[in-house]
Amino acid sequence: MATLTDQEIKIIPIFSDFKIESTNSPKKNGQFVISEYSEKSMHGSFLPYEEAKHYKRAAVSGIVIAKDGILIARRSETVDQYPDFFECAPSGGLCQEDFEAQLYQELEEEVRFGIKDIERSFLLFLIEDVKANTVDICSLIKMQEFFKPIVNKEYVDAQWIYLDELSSYSYQHRQEFVPTSLVLIEKAKEML
Q: pTM for the whole thing?
């Protein structure tokens, strides 16, 4: 696997009132394509997925924390980007203007956690993954307690990694992590 360089990942701070501004309505089986973005907003339009994958796309990524652990999942070999890699769940393409609702939808679909299980969540930053041609709107999600994740077709496994084991785990598996998730993990360790 290729080694990641700092040039492949860009971290952009964002304001708490960050918003999505689209020139059209969301499409069924579509994704948001970015024309421009800043710390205040992201501008673009929704395109059908097959067309959107040829452009810079928006996504959501969260890092789920409960007690003293972080939720990590291994992606299926059938996904388009980073097959068989570890990542922080939830993660997915932006299919609606309400990115927070999209994040919660991904959380429900991917590991079967509901909004009722969330203690609080807040925006962190944007991460641009140059290789994947995506910009993720990243959030921290605090759960009240550990729940057993139930994975779907996007993941082959999901598990809680304790914070005191996180540094060695992410270092040992560094080449097997989605780049966005490595950044989320590093930032979470700084905050906790």
A: 0.92
Q: What would the mean pLDDT of 120-129 be, rounded to a whole number?
A: 95
State how far the Cα of 142 lies from the Cα of 119, in Å rounded to an integer: 5
Region 8-191: CATH code: 3.90.79.10
Residues 26, 162: Cα–Cα separation, whole Å: 38
- Which helix (H) or strand (E) is 70 found in, with range? strand 69-75
Q: What is the mean pLDDT of residues 138-165?
A: 90
Helix%, strand%, coil% for the chain, nearest 5: 25, 40, 35
Asked if the peptide bond before residue 149 counts as cis, ω within 30 degrees of 0, the response is no
Distance (Å, whole) CA 90 – CA 186: 17
